[in-house]
From TrEMBL:
This is SigE family RNA polymerase sigma factor. NCBIfam families: SigE-fam_strep, sigma70-ECF. Residues 21-80 form the RNA polymerase sigma-70 region domain. Pfam families: Sigma70_r2, Sigma70_r4_2. SUPFAM superfamilies: Sigma2 domain of RNA polymerase sigma factors, Sigma3 and sigma4 domains of RNA polymerase sigma factors. InterPro entries: RNA_pol_sigma-70-like, RNA_pol_sigma-70_dom, RNA_pol_sigma-E_actinobac, RNA_pol_sigma70_r2, RNA_pol_sigma70_r4_t2, RNA_pol_sigma_r2, RNA_pol_sigma_r3/r4-like, WH-like_DNA-bd_sf. It comes from the Bacteria. Residues 112-163 form the RNA polymerase sigma factor 70 region 4 type domain. Keywords: DNA-binding, Sigma factor, Transcription, Transcription regulation. Belongs to the sigma-70 factor family. ECF subfamily.
């Protein structure tokens, strides 16, 4: 009995360590604050640990965990509707190696991008982060957000339109494309 539990704990620990940086990045983009992102990811992994057998047996455990995180984030925002704060500092955020073809990763002024994301309504922000930062398909984003594909398309389009309307962000993206 103890051996199975130890094996399950080791499997969870391996999953946890491997997914922490990516989930932290996503949580930071959703919350806009380092400490809020850490709290969100930690509470997500607490829930996942309790249900680890079910999570590990899922077809895509990472998608399952992402859905748990999105739901936890949404619950927090139902309590404090529209309390998105501009990110204060992202210096402690664990960074992944940037994809050279990723326009957002090439942006010179990260602060402008983060403030712009923080200004989006919660559902638009979730759709933009999942579709364009996490590079999920519309179907995967819809599953993660618990809504229809049409709602993802609509929220992502509205969010991108708002981001494109921000002059400082548009200039940064244009300058990043010339390099």
């Amino acid at each position: 009995m103890g051996d199975r539990r130890e094996a399950r704990d080791a499997e969870f620990q391996s999953f946890f360590i491997g997914r922490w940086p990516r989930l932290m990045r996503t949580a930071f983009l959703l919350t806009g604050e380092q400490h809020a992102a850490e709290d969100l990811v930690q509470s997500t992994f607490e829930q996942v640990y309790v249900a680890w057998r079910k999570v590990a047996a899922a077809d895509d455990p990472e998608a399952y965990v992402r859905r748990v995180m999105i739901n936890a984030h949404a619950r927090r925002h139902r309590r404090r509707l529209r309390e998105f704060l501009a990110p204060k500092d992202d210096s402690g955020l664990v960074r992944e190696v940037a994809d050279t073809g990723d326009r957002i990763a090439q942006a010179d002024d990260r602060g402008v991008l983060l403030k712009a994301l923080a200004g989006l309504p919660p559902r638009q922000r979730e759709a933009v982060v999942l579709r364009y930062w996490e590079d999920l398909t519309e179907t995967q984003a819809a599953e993660a957000m618990g809504c229809s594909v049409g709602a993802v398309k609509s929220n992502a389009a509205k969010g991108i339109a708002k981001l494109r309307a921000i002059p400082g962000l548009a200039e940064t993206a244009t300058q990043g494309g010339r390099k």
